[in-house]
């Protein structure tokens, strides 16, 4: 056992050396027109050796380290507690939600302009993650191309505004519905697929949409994207310095206050907040309804679910369609926030991040997903100083989380359907 | 009640059933026995429409359901306890039962739930336990209970005794006998030939996708061929 560990550790350390030595230990310098290969500074070489030693030590004592990590939740006094009675938990959840929303409402009036803008982005991710949570967390369908529906929502708004001058409020439901339609259509070919096959097909679908947007230059502008996407209006009031559309009046003129560009940012934030809340409430409602229970049954055991008369087609399509609908929602808000979109915003990494949020938060758990969306979006911003290492830290955090709490930050607790007592 | 006429079922190009005819009359317990790979599960799944028969007819209560969708068939008064139990592991016992009553009203669910708890007091004790953490026998009871929640007129069981201790098997078979008294028609597939035939009004022996023998349960038990092949001589 011990010798096996040491052998394995040695092997890992050597691999570390082999990989890092040429990449970090050698520098390419351009001397005039030629490239010169030089050895890196001693400090770099020392760190490479140190890294190899760390890897060696970690692998040698891996079992005890992982064991200790596994023990950590025991320190958490919530971990081993009896689950709360349902009514109490629901009440607590509602209080928590109200506090959360109240805090979020105050936020734009205390935080800086940049933080409000970031918070809008967080809310967009909350919407996306809540939507994907339906597909992956509840229905158990691994969707790696979720960003496609986000793109469909965003591009629907961008194109409608560019060609038909459609406003945000019309585009919002349209974008969501068209994204839902795409979800529905994608649902058909993948009905018979499960697990890895489903993941690969959805991954492909995500890429197809992105490549289509990139290459259909005449319609989408290709990599140049689409700009000039209008901001939302408030009952016909615009937030720009000058009114763009005839008949509209500007917000600051109407209230007789000085023009301030933060008004627009706050307004967008509030819209995103309301929409995220709506998303949350609708999905929570759906979870308690038969359709929500049928998603779970399908995730738990497809054959058993079908043996009870549930239609596989109906259940899967509903999950895909509803998930896509909220991605379209988020996409429209995103397009409006950015004012400019290009296929670059809808790469696979986005799908991966949204999926990471759902997994980190705890599959199926709505509060967990919200928490994870905040963490995953805000932490990299806070870690700006380590900019180059951001992805590295992100990855390390994911690995640690999965070792420490594989069931996610706040594991899902299902709501029992309470039958009314007999009268 | 249930009539299978000259059923052929294929998995891709391979034919698993080569023309099987079986009848289950109202109020009967009919047992189907056969070795591993004989096609028993395939036969039951064909009744449920997944896979569908390539030729032949499946008639349920006078209605041809051969080409019906599985979801429609399973909502028309027939329930199956699938091979290997297949409870929803992450759901509690009660939630599993409620899934069984998915298409029923709350009042009906409440009533069937009491009924199931009456049959299996053990399930009542474990009401809030996650199904995946229960013993094999308890899971089998739950699978039967969940099927009963659909309020079936006919129940199909695929090897309910699989992997269970003799005492539990005895209990399960007692319950199956009890279901008949409640007026539920039973179609039972078993490897455990002795008990299955003992309980059954009639029985069939399936071999390599063909019905070899059919007779009353008692006659099949006494049949030397059956004794040699399925009752250990
Ligand atoms: N999904 C499938 N695809 C291809 N062949 C299958 C499939 N399911 C079953 N078969 C084949 O059909 C034949 C009958 O299988 P079936 O499962 O019906 O047997 P069984 O009588 O239920 O056996 P057991 O007692 O072991 O459950 C077997 O040869 C099996 O390999
Ligand atoms: Mg079988």
Q: Can you count the beta strands of chain A?
A: 4
Shape of chain B: globular
Q: What is the residue-mean pLDDT of chain B, rounded to a whole number? A: 92
The CATH topology assignment of the largest domain in chain A is ABC transporter involved in vitamin B12 uptake, BtuC
CATH topology of the largest domain in chain B, anyone? Rossmann fold
Q: Which secondary-structure class do the elements of chain A indicate?
A: mainly alpha
Question: Helical stretch count of chain B?
Answer: 10
Bound chemical compounds: adenosine-5'-triphosphate, magnesium ion
Helix content of chain B: 25-40%
Integer tally of domains of chain B:
2
Going by CATH, the architecture of the largest domain in chain A would be Orthogonal Bundle
For the sheet with most strands of chain B, the description reads: 6 strands, mixed
In CATH, the architecture of the largest domain in chain B is: 3-Layer(aba) Sandwich
- Any low-confidence stretches of chain A, pLDDT <50, length ≥5? 75-81
SS field, number of helical segments of chain A:
17
The number of distinct structural domains of chain A comes to 2
In CATH, what is the class of the largest domain in chain A?
Mainly Alpha
User: What Rg of chain A, in angstroms, do the CA atoms define?
Assistant: 25 Å
Estimate the strand proportion of chain B.
Answer: 25-35%
Task: Spell out the helices and strands of chain B N to C.
Answer: EEEHEEHEHHHHEHEHEEHH
Assess the beta-strand content of chain A as a share of residues: under 5%
């Amino acid at each position: 056992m011990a010798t096996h560990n040491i052998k394995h550790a040695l092997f890992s350390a050597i691999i570390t050396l082999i990989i890092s030595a040429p990449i970090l230990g050698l520098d390419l310098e351009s001397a005039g027109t030629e490239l010169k290969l030089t050895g890196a500074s001693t400090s770099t070489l020392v760190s490479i050796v140190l890294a190899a030693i760390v890897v060696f030590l970690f692998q040698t004592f891996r079992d005890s380290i992982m064991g200790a990590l596994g023990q950590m939740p025991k320190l958490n006094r919530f971990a081993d507690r009896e689950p709360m009675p349902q009514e109490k938990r629901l009440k607590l959840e509602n209080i928590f939600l109200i506090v959360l929303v109240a805090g979020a409402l105050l936020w734009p009036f205390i935080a800086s302009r940049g933080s409000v803008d970031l918070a809008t982005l967080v809310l967009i991710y909350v919407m996306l993650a809540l939507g994907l949570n339906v597909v992956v967390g509840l229905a158990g369908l691994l969707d790696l191309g979720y960003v496609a529906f986000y793109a469909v929502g965003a591009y629907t708004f961008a194109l409608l505004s560019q060609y038909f001058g459609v406003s945000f409020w019309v585009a919002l439901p349209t974008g969501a519905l068209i994204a839902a339609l795409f979800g529905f259509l994608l649902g058909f070919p993948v009905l018979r697929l499960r697990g890895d096959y489903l993941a690969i097909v959805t991954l492909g679908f995500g890429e197809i949409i992105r490549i289509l947007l990139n290459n259909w230059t005449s319609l989408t502008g290709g990599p140049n994207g689409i700009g000039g996407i209008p901001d939302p209006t408030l009952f016909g009031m615009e937030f720009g310095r000058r009114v763009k559309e005839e008949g509209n009046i500007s917000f600051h003129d109407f209230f007789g206050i000085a023009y301030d560009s933060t008004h627009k940012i706050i307004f967008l934030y509030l819209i995103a907040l309301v929409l995220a809340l709506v998303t949350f409430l609708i999905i929570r409602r759906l979870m308690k309804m038969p359709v929500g229970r049928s998603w779970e049954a399908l995730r738990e055991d497809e054959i058993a679910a079908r043996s009870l008369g549930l239609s596989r087609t109906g259940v899967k399509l509903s999950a895909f369609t509803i998930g896509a609908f909220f991605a379209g929602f988020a996409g429209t808000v995103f397009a409006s926030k950015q004012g400019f979109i290009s296929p670059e915003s809808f790469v696979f990494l986005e799908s991966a991040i949204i999926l990471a949020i759902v997994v980190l938060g705890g599959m199926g758990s709505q509060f967990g997903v919200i928490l994870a969306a905040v963490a995953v979006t805000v932490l990299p911003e806070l870690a700006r100083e380590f900019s180059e290492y951001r992805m590295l830290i992100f990855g390390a955090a994911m690995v640690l989380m999965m070792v420490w709490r594989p069931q996610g930050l706040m594991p899902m607790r299902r709501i029992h359907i309470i039958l009314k007592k007999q009268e | 009640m249930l009539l299978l006429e000259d059923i052929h079922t294929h998995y891709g190009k391979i034919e698993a059933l080569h023309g099987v005819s079986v009848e289950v009359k109202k109020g009967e317990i009919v047992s189907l026995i056969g070795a591993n790979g004989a096609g028993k599960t395939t036969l039951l799944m064909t009744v449920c429409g997944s896979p569908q028969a390539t030729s032949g007819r499946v008639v349920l209560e006078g209605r041809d359901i051969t080409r019906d969708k599985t979801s429609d068939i399973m909502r028309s008064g027939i329930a199956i306890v699938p091979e290997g139990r297949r409870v929803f592991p992450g759901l509690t016992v009660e939630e599993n039962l409620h899934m069984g009553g998915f298409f029923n009203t709350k009042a009906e669910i409440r009533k069937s739930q009491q009924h199931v708890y009456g049959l299996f007091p053990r399930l009542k004790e474990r009401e809030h336990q996650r199904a995946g953490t229960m013993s094999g026998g308890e899971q089998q009871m739950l699978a039967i209970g969940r099927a009963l929640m659909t309020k079936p007129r006919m129940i199909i069981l695929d090897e309910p005794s699989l992997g269970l201790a003799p005492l539990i098997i005895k209990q399960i078979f007692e319950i199956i006998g009890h279901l008949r008294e409640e007026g539920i028609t039973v179609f039972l597939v078993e490897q455990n030939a002795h008990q299955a035939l003992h309980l059954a009004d009639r029985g069939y022996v399936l071999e390599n996708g063909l019905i070899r023998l059919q007779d009353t349960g008692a006659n099949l038990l006494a049949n030397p061929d059956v004794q040699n092949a399925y009752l250990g001589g």
